[in-house]
Amino acid sequence: MSTATTASVSTHILDTSIGRPAEGVAISLAARSGPDAGWTTLGGSATDADGRCKDLPALPEGTTHVRLDFQVEAYFVRNDSADNQQAEAQQDAPRVRDSGAFFPEVAITFAVRPGEHYHVPLLLNPFGYSVYRGS
Length: 135
Prior knowledge:
Layout: E1 8-15, E2 20-21, E3 26-32, E4 40-46, E5 52-53, E6 65-71, H1 73-78, H2 82-90, E7 106-111, E8 117-119, E9 122-125, E10 128-131
Parallel strand pairs: 1-8, 1-9
Antiparallel strand pairs: 1-2, 1-5, 3-4, 3-6, 6-7, 9-10
């Protein structure tokens, strides 16, 4: 009898407004073992200079759903550079940096299956974001 291993998760963030990795973004990882189960926070990490988060906690056996919470407001406040201001100006949108960020956090929830790896990149800019299942 073989037992299935648990799923694993990794992520990275690219700030598409400046074409660079987003360094220093805090990320927390939560899991649950069914659609009606409560969320258990497993821990977290922060992105490195490459925008990658390589040390997220392992998922417990029986995990069916995962939630990644990206705390992006502090990143935008720290990186309110000329590049970011130019990107905002090109978006023809009102500045919202006075309050930190238009999206202060991004929460991504997805289903997982035992034995599979899930790489979930976040493409981020001051007024939008996109995610996908990578490899």
